């Protein structure tokens, strides 16, 4: 009996030990939070419901009963996690701020696989009172004086009147994005190999006001001698938007026998414009006006083609001692998939751009004190589209070609020395960068010929730069970079012939929890090496364009934790853009035979942007936490000066606006499983240049969080 009892005890104890050695899978109960929310919103100030307010453009809302200016609506937030085992888990998230702003995320993880899914939806309102969308809504959007009382002018009179064929003021555009992906983690295909495949896309749909201008003879009148048809040329209609983009990408990373790192990425992207293709046949001209019957009514209005993009790239990297080497090559093809009736009739059946890029990069440290960095990058872009196309895209027929880019080749290179003197806690870098770019351009033989264009074939730029990074002071990190570039040749006026750049960043971290940072950036550019001449006149004059631009930005921020239960932060940012360009006025359009130019003024613009933000949070007691934030955005400046400013008027020239935003919130713990969330937001937009854009809106949110 004693032996039986001993054997029984041994078996029981052994069983318990075996069971104890086996991992116990956690229960697959969800953890996280579920928060139903109730929102109240109201637009306090601004235009009426028949127009789109400025604030409504960027945050469209809708309450019960369909009211878009004031009302109530419900929403739901989710943040759930299912832990099935140590390696297997499911995460579900959803956020929402009404019918027009919401999104979600799902993720499944195992030891070898990961699956993800995402979506988001947002609506933005457009149109309304903006000059860019509806000229009739803004004083000065049209100017009757351009159509002389004698009604004899036919070239510029169309800007005297805008003809709105849409007869509506409220527009909106929806954007729905989505994505799926999976990843094979290391161990499935090899210890150092991963494979990721992702599918993303979006739907963009809605309506907008589309403007256009008819040609000089497209609009006609049945009344003999009546030239008022000119005022019928500038028109707008309600255009539907219906776009779909789908993108499939795959990335394979591997390290064959740990000799080098290899990465390959492939991309296939398809853009499908499913909106109606409007043509001149859709233009509704009321009697006594009519569309010229001899004109081609199949000509498109703002045609957007379907397209397919494919891209393949390979990257290889290798470390040898203190030297890191990397090289890569990519090939991309962009193809036009749909064509207009005039394109097909003329024989334009191929739209294709091919791009190749390659690079080699080296970063080496000869000693702990001395190192070298360098790279060479090559790029080539070929325009393989149909050319020439008789009657559509050629160098002889009038108004058929401005300038065609046949090919662009560029080579960029750089070399730099890196010094890390011992004992200074600093790194110094001194280097040189260069770029050579050549363009193969085709100009019209008699229209916009090269002499009246500011495009050039070549760019040749040299730049020297210096960097200094320092940790010499305790708790302080400092970085400064300066550069100076000169160009013997520039292909575009926007490419600088001379440029100076400066960037500085400083960060300070105090032992007590204070973090302070600041920065300053400067970019000063100018270009005065582009000249053009008059056309086909006895003594053509030559003119040189002069462009300069200075962009500065600076900012400072800090965060501080005065106590374990509170935190405060603040930041101030400033950016200024100051630009000038010589303004030339031409007597005729550039492609006409006798175009001449006259220097009118030095056109300048200066705009300052300021952004102030501060806030914090505080744990009042064990059950109540408060948080809040205030931000101010201020824009001030002018877009033109002198002669141009006198023509456009102060409404289009001046910028003077403020946007105030206040966000307040509180979290109140009702029990261990329930949390009451309260939120309030207030926005006020003040436009001193155009008061009709001003307005205000606020909202209140009450949510009840259930903790699982």
3D architecture notes:
By secondary structure, this protein is mostly beta strands. It is built from 5 helices and 29 strands. The protein has helices spanning 2-21, 54-58, 341-346, 642-648, 650-653, and strands at 30-45, 70-83, 89-96, 101-109, 113-127, 163-164, 170-184, 194-213, 219-221, 234-254, 261-273, 289-291, 307-320, 323-336, 352-365, 370-383, 403-419, 426-443, 458-470, 476-489, 498-509, 515-533, 542-563, 566-586, 597-619, 624-638, 654-669, 674-687, 695-707. The strands form 2 sheets. The protein has a 26-stranded antiparallel β-barrel. It has a two-stranded antiparallel ribbon with strand order 9-12. The longest helix is centred in the N-terminal third of the chain and has 20 residues, at 2-21.
Indicate the topology.
Blueprint: H1 2-21, E1 30-45, H2 54-58, E2 70-83, E3 89-96, E4 101-109, E5 113-127, E6 163-164, E7 170-184, E8 194-213, E9 219-221, E10 234-254, E11 261-273, E12 289-291, E13 307-320, E14 323-336, H3 341-346, E15 352-365, E16 370-383, E17 403-419, E18 426-443, E19 458-470, E20 476-489, E21 498-509, E22 515-533, E23 542-563, E24 566-586, E25 597-619, E26 624-638, H4 642-648, H5 650-653, E27 654-669, E28 674-687, E29 695-707
Parallel strand pairs: 6-10
Antiparallel strand pairs: 1-2, 1-29, 2-3, 3-4, 4-5, 5-7, 7-8, 8-10, 9-12, 10-11, 11-13, 13-14, 14-15, 15-16, 16-17, 17-18, 18-19, 19-20, 20-21, 21-22, 22-23, 23-24, 24-25, 25-26, 26-27, 27-28, 28-29
């Amino acid at each position: 009996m004693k032996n039986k009892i001993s054997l029984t005890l041994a078996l029981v104890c052994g069983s318990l030990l075996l069971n104890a050695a086996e991992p116990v899978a956690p229960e697959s109960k969800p953890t996280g939070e579920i928060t139903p929310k109730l929102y109240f919103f109201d637009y306090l100030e601004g235009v009426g419901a028949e127009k789109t307010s400025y604030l409504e453009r960027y945050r469209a809302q809708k309450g019960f009963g369909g009211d878009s200016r004031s009302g109530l609506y419900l929403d739901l937030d989710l943040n759930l996690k299912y832990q099935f085992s140590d390696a297997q888990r499911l995460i579900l998230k959803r956020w929402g701020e009404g019918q027009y702003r919401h999104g979600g995320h799902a993720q499944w993880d195992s030891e070898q696989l990961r699956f993800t899914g995402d979506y988001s939806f947002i609506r933005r309102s457009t149109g309304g009172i903006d000059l860019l969308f509806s000229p009739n809504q803004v004083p000065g959007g049209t100017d009757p004086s351009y159509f002389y009382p004698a009604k004899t002018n036919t070239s510029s009179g169309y800007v005297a009147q805008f003809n709105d064929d849409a007869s509506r003021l409220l527009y909106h555009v929806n954007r729905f994005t989505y994505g799926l992906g999976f990843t094979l983690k290391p161990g499935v295909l090899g210890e150092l190999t991963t494979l990721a495949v992702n599918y993303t896309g979006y739907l963009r749909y809605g309506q907008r006001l589309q403007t256009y201008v008819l040609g000089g003879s497209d609009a006609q009148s049945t009344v003999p001698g009546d030239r008022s048809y000119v005022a019928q040329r500038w028109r707008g209609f309600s255009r539907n938007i219906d776009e779909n983009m789908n993108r499939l990408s795959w990335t394979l990373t591997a390290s064959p026998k740990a000799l080098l790192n290899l990465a390959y990425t492939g991309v296939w992207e398809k853009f499908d414009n499913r909106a109606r293709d409007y043509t001149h046949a859709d233009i509704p001209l009321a009697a006594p006006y009519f569309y010229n019957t001899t004109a081609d009514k199949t000509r498109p209005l703002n045609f957007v083609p379907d397209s397919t993009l494919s891209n393949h790239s390979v990257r290889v990297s290798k470390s040898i001692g203190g030297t890191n080497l990397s090289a890569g090559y990519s090939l991309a093809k962009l193809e036009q998939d749909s064509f207009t009736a005039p394109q097909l009739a003329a024989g334009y059946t191929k739209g294709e751009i091919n791009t190749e890029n390659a690079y080699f990069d080296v970063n080496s440290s000869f000693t702990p004190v001395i190192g070298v960095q360098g790279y060479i990058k090559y790029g080539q872009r070929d325009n393989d589209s149909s050319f020439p196309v008789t009657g559509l895209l050629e160098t002889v027929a009038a108004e058929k070609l401005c300038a065609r880019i046949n090919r662009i080749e560029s080579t960029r290179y750089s070399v730099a020395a890196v010094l890390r003197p011992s004992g200074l806690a600093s790194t110094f870098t001194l280097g040189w960068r260069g770029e050579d770019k050549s363009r193969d351009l085709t100009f019209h033989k008699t229209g916009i010929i090269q002499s009246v264009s500011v495009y050039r074939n070549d760019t040749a730029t040299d730049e020297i730069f210096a960097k200094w990074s320092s940790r010499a002071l305790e708790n302080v990190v400092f970085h400064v970079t300066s550069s100076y570039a000169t160009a013997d040749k520039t292909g575009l006026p926007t490419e600088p012939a001379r440029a100076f750049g400066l960037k500085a960043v400083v960060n300070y971290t105090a032992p007590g929890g204070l973090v302070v940072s600041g920065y300053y950036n400067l970019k000063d550019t100018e270009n005065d090496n582009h000249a053009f001449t008059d056309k086909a006149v006895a003594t053509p004059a030559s003119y040189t364009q002069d462009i300069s631009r200075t962009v500065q930005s600076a900012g400072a921020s800090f965060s501080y934790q005065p106590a374990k239960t509170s935190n405060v932060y603040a930041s101030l940012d400033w950016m200024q853009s100051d630009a000038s360009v010589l303004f030339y006025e031409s007597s005729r359009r550039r492609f006409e035979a006798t175009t001449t130019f006259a220097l009118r003024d030095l056109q300048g613009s200066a705009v300052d942007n300021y952004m102030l933000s501060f806030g914090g949070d505080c744990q009042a007691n064990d059950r109540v936490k408060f948080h809040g934030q205030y931000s101010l955005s201020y824009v001030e400046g002018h877009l033109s000066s002198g002669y141009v400013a006198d023509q456009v008027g102060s409404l289009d020239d001046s910028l003077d606006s403020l946007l105030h935003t206040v966000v307040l919130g509180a979290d109140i713990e009702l029990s261990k499983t329930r949390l009451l969330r309260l939120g309030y937001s207030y926005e006020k937009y003040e436009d001193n240049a155009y008061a009709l854009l001003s307005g205000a809106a606020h909202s209140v949110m009450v949510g009840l969080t259930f903790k699982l």
